Description:
The chain has three domains: about 5-165 and about 290-350, FAD/NAD(P)-binding domain (3-Layer(bba) Sandwich); about 175-290, FAD/NAD(P)-binding domain (3-Layer(bba) Sandwich), CATH 3.50.50; about 370-475, FAD/NAD-linked reductase, C-terminal dimerisation domain (Enolase-like, domain 1, 2-Layer Sandwich). Helices cover about 35% and strands about 25% of the residues. The protein contains 14 helices and 24 strands. A hairpin with a 5-residue loop joins β23 (about 410-415) and β24 (about 420-425). Flavin-adenine dinucleotide binds near residues 59, 71, 203 and 329.
Amino acid sequence: MFNGKGKIQQINALVSPANYHNPTPKPYYDFVVLGGGTAGLIAALGANALGANVALIESRHMGGDCLNTGCVPSKGLIELAQKYHTSRMFIEKFGQTLNLDTSSWVQASQHARAKIAPHDAVDRFVKMGLDIFMSKASFENPHVVALETGEKLRFKKAAICTGASAKRLLIEGVDAADVLTNESIFHLATLPGKLLVIGSGPIGCEMAQAFSRLGTKVTIVTQSKRLFEQNDISISRLMQNVFAQENIDIHFDAHIEKVVPRGSTKYVVVRSCAARIEVQFDKILMAVGRVPNTEGLKLYEAGVDVDQKAIVVDRYLRTSQKHIFASGDVIGNTMFTHHADAQSRVLVQNAFTPFSKKAVFATPKVTYTQPEVATICAPGVSFSDCKQVTMSFDKVDRAVIKDRDQALVHVYIDEKQHIQGAEIVHPIAGEILPQLQLAMQHKMKLGDFSSMMYAYPTESEILRKIGDRQRAQRFTPLLQKISRWMVKWL
Ligand SMILES: Cc1cc2nc3c(=O)[nH]c(=O)nc-3n(C[C@H](O)[C@H](O)[C@H](O)COP(=O)(O)OP(=O)(O)OC[C@H]3O[C@@H](n4cnc5c(N)ncnc54)[C@H](O)[C@@H]3O)c2cc1C
């Protein structure tokens, strides 16, 4: 029998050990990093590798959102939901039923976390020579950080990597509701019967589908006019169909007017341009965006500017104080682990080497619904300025065999046929996308995929097929004439 609490204690002993004592601060640090999430850890490790003496301060858990309340537990849960869904669908074909032990869903998210936690353990970084302080940090002046535990750290350079937290909407009566965020949803003791998800971004969509697949009745209320609003309309339609087939209700262009408790039952009043209706729920998941964690940092003491709570940086990740840098979710915009990681590598290069680099990336974005939706776009490019080349997976034998023929690829090319971006809907879209990403990076043309030999039958073959089609278009009437002549005379 899974002991959820035991597993969580075991993880905490690694990433926020209760018996840990902060080291005695050195008189001076080359580099102080605030925040021990992906951005902070990569920045601290990079600077340490270059020979800087580094202090890293973390107020809660090493590993930040990604390990503790974000990517890892959510993908653990999604994995369980998918396995359960697939097994249930298969078994039901034979008139059987499959029941899920409700404790196993907590196990799934914490099990994944437990396996990955040793990478982010405090002890690991201490052994690498970093001074780790478990405390909340704020600035005392542009060269000193003060810790809640009393220490003061004097530094030459610093990086602010304090991440972001779930945004909360102020809704009438919401205090009477059980409102969950990514902080609490992976610790529920039982599955909610009815879950209301507010917001249809990546977190809202992923959690809505996962809970629905585990047996919860899910309703999404969103201000958006369609799912995957940033993507091509064909992707929205495809995903809305999937969600409808999985019995997930969605109210588009809508907002929650108020929460109404009625006896032991709770309702929300949902207002859209089409109607004003009541929806019953047990729990609410707030998934309406993320707010950078800058409150309490006393950035004014350091002279670091913020805009709408996000730290303002230039393209070299320097704040308004040139010796203080920032990276990751705290600077807003693109909030992904790999983006935070990439930024922090650039940050270290800019802080400690003479070779400055701009933090401008083509960042891949994957939403881990089933099917996954993966997108990439070259910096400064808009899909609307490109030519869209589309192919559906019904042209690919392996996808047909696997019943995945509804999936599709859109590749965006410029007038010279260079790849500028792509959108893929496919069960493993995130694994197919990097081929296009590499092609973009090496300024390849879409037709170049034609010369690539793929093993048969694989689903990646779709790229060769698109390449073939693209190349065939270059076979102009003149070339056809020359070819006919050659066939005859050679
Ligand atoms: C539910 C969910 C699912 C996600 N799934 C994915 C995914 O699949 N793929 C992906 O790429 N991204 C995903 N993300 C986003 C990803 O988690 C973040 O982009 C990533 O964690 C950002 O790293 P960071 O270091 O900037 O911030 P964080 O990971 O938030 O780390 C910041 C750290 O700073 C600490 N801190 C804050 N204030 C202070 C202070 N004053 N003093 C000291 N320490 C402080 C915090 O405790 C925290 O540990 C997901 C996020 C959520 C919420």
